[in-house]
TrEMBL record:
This is Phage shock protein B. One of its GO terms (biological process) is regulation of DNA-templated transcription. Signal peptide: none annotated. Keywords: Membrane, Transmembrane, Transmembrane helix. Pfam families: PspB. It comes from Brumicola pallidula DSM 14239 = ACAM 615. The chain crosses the membrane at residues 6-27.
Length: 79
């Protein structure tokens, strides 16, 4: 029975070492390389667009809050 438990313990370790660990290392170092390279032009353009949209949303929220402050002064207390 002792040999059988060693085999069952060793098989997952061997599978991890042969398959999971190399894939894990490759993906890890690939992602580190991408981080060092920075944003691509497409990613930077997307980030700029999202920042502009966030600024527009912020302006709209401020406008809506000012309207609510005028029409219903105690609306913040209900939230």
């Amino acid at each position: 029975m002792g040999e059988l438990s060693v085999i069952f313990a060793g098989v997952p370790l061997i599978l991890f070492t042969l398959f999971v660990a190399p894939i894990w290392l490759i993906l890890h170092y690939r992602s580190k390389k991408q981080v060092k390279q920075g944003l691509s032009e497409e990613e930077f353009a997307t980030l700029q667009t999202l920042a502009e949209k966030a600024e527009l949303m912020s302006d709209r929220i401020r406008t809506l809050e000012s309207i609510l402050d005028e029409e219903t002064p105690k609306w913040r207390e209900r939230a």
